[in-house]
Amino acid sequence: MSDPLKEAMAVLDAYMEGLNRGDEPAVNAACNFPHVRLAGGKVVVWQNHGDYKLADFVARAGEGWARSQWDERTPIHVGPDKVHLKVAFSRWKADGSLIGRFGTIYIVTRQDGHWGIQARSSFAS
Questions:
Q1: 21 by DSSP, 3-state: which?
Q2: Which of 23, 44, 95, 117 is deepest in the core (most CB within 10 A)?
Q3: Which ranges of the chain have pLDDT less than 70?
């Protein structure tokens, strides 16, 4: 039997690694769809695999964004098919200067055996 928390953490790792590589297929593979993002007073729903575009992320990531990293990943609730996590991440420029740190809630789900990020509510723009 799988360990839901271990699966969720692996998905977050895969998401961040794909994001930092600029690997749009890997980012989409780390998500379940429809995928919901609540941030900046807006709700965005990506309905289908492949709808999450890295160009959209880069446009909102901050001037000079080069990479992001997890600063916190604390489980809130863990069930057999869904994990809620309190996370914090930071965005960085290539010169090592900080763009910002952001608190977020991530919901990672298992759909048809695939673990992926399903929803997030963030204080990031």
A1: helix
A2: 117
A3: 1, 125
Burial 48-76, CB ≥16 within 10 A → b, else e? ebeebebeeeeeebbeebebbeeeebeee
User: What pLDDT does 62 receive?
Assistant: 86
The pTM of this model reads: 0.93
φ, ψ (nearest 5 deg) of residue 84: -100, 135
CA distances from 28 to 63, 72, 108 (A): 23, 22, 13
42 contact partners, CB below 8 Å, separation of at least 6: none
Smallest CA-to-CA distance from 122 within 66, 67, 44 is with: 44
Q: What are the E-state strand segments in the chain?
A: 31-39, 42-46, 65-78, 82-93, 98-111, 114-122
CB 124 within 8 A of CB 42: no
pLDDT at 40: 86
pLDDT of residue 30: 98
Alpha-carbon span 79 to 69, nearest angstrom: 25
